[in-house]
Design goal:
The protein has five helices and no strands. The protein is mostly helical. It is flat. The model has no long low-confidence stretch (mean pLDDT 78).
Length: 100
Amino acid sequence: MHRFYVIGLLLLGVVMIAKPPFLMKVVFPNENSFTNPQEQNGGYDMVGYSAALGGTLLTASNFVCMRRLRAVHFSVLIFAFSVSSAILSAAVVAAMAEFR
């Protein structure tokens, strides 16, 4: 039960930091302080919100895997996670096709 409480707090923290405009309009319908230029253009930065949420979930899965694989030497785990992160990052950048 304690783990679900922590997971909920972490996800709530991600939402509070990101302050997605579509959610802030629902929570605070009378305030205009949450408007930004992207919202006026009609587009939201969903890539940023997805990256924040995905980073949280991947970090949590990293901790779970590290605890399950206690018998494996830590340098092997760090190397394996680094290589998999590099491959995943390269795939996301290639899929987004925006090299700036």
